[in-house]
Amino acid sequence: AFLHSTNIIFFETFSQSNILVSELGRCYLADFGLTTTVLQSFSSSTGDSRGSTRWMAPELFYPRYSKPSTSTDMYALGCTILEIITGVLPFSEISSDVAVISHVMNGFHPSCPARRFSDEVWGVVKECWEDSDRRPSIQDFAYELHKHYSRRANEDASSETYLLTGKSTLPG
Q: What share of the chain is helix, strand, coil (3-state, %, to 5)?
């Protein structure tokens, strides 16, 4: 969130291989080698899509009209969360990058290959693949995930207390 607030864009850095997890479960983005700022230009004259197509927001396939932004980062983050939780690449059912590009440009989003998400978390992740002006900010995304997992941790703690004492720790 801090880096997005300073206009630093993570274009090309979001993928499972660039996220490290500490023993305490904190995630750290590891590869800043390709991080850019909003003010840097996005080269469209070479035709180079600069990044893995499986994580690229649809608007980036039109480099003449769009540049990497916090919104395109959110698209990539949604793909990365999908990859981390399921263990498979976005659009894993499609073998060719050209077919992935076509799929994305026709409005299709990554699918969840296995129900490893709660409906609430899946809904938050899917918001990352909305039209660019409707994607959540990193702050809103983090807030929604934190809210879900905090509630879940409280429910788990209450269940453990109930199993041990027969009394609920939740009000009501």
A: 45, 5, 50
- Give the pair of three-digit tokens for residue 127: 């918001």
**Run of H or E residues at 20:** strand 19-21
> Would you list the domain boundaries of the chain?
49-165
Give the type of residue at 47.
G
Please give the model's pTM, rounded to 2 decimal places: 0.70
pLDDT digits (tens, 9 = 90+) for 114-143: 667 788 889 999 999 999 999 999 999 999
Task: Specify the pairing of strand 8-9 against strand 36-37.
Answer: antiparallel
CA distances from 12 to 16, 103, 115 (A): 12, 20, 27
Confirm or reject CATH 3.90.1640.10 for domain 49-165, answering yes or no. no
